[in-house]
Amino acid sequence: MLATTALLAALVLTGCSGGAAPEAEPAPLSTAADAAATGGASASADPSTDPSTGPAEQVVTTMTAFHSPSNNIFCYLAPVEGRGPYARCDLQEKSWEADPPDAGCAGDWGGAAGTRGSVGVGDDEAAVLCAADTLVDTPGQELAYGSSISMGDMTCTVTAETGMACANGTTGRGFTVSKAEVTLR
After folding, report:
1. What is the per-residue pLDDT across 24-63, written as a single tens digit (0 to 9) for each?
2. How far apart are CA 44 and CA 80, in angstroms?
3. Could you count the other beta carbons within 10 Å of the beta carbon of residue 60?
4. What residue spans define the domains of the chain?
5. pTM score, two decimals?
6. CB of 154 within 8 A of CB of 85?
7. CA 23, 28, 33, 34 torsion: positive or negative?
8. Which residues of 6-25 are buried (b: 16+ CB within 10 A; e: fewer)?
């Protein structure tokens, strides 16, 4: 449990956007510890999918880790003090590339020719990320195809066709990411 807490805390504190100044710390250390202590989920709705009601729409209030059924896309939603929630997703395997930031990258460039990728969005623009860590294999709940998870104005939805889409309902900023491509808006 302590190792999971430390891993989540490290992941939250080391992710940054593509060379630009980070918009804010994605979540305070205590939030990461709380999420790890509860298995990464704090929900006000049942995350299961009931065929009679359709896919689950889950609402969370603390840092929550989740992944796609394919185990290729690993994400978290986290509150950011004084700002809206932050969503980050890392891919275990990708075939797309993105141009690196002009200022360079202190960590691994998530859009490089390597197999892994990283993308995030908060109140500001969505971006492919520089990251010295990875969310791949982070413990968290599996989000069923067609299901959504939300924190405040941020919602992430997973589908078999498009992968994971996360968007801020207030700003309209977001991303859609899959093994084949990434789209930032």
Report:
1. 333 332 333 333 333 343 333 333 334 434 457 999 999 9
2. 19
3. 26
4. 2-42+55-184
5. 0.73
6. yes
7. negative
8. ebbbebbbebbbbbeeebeb
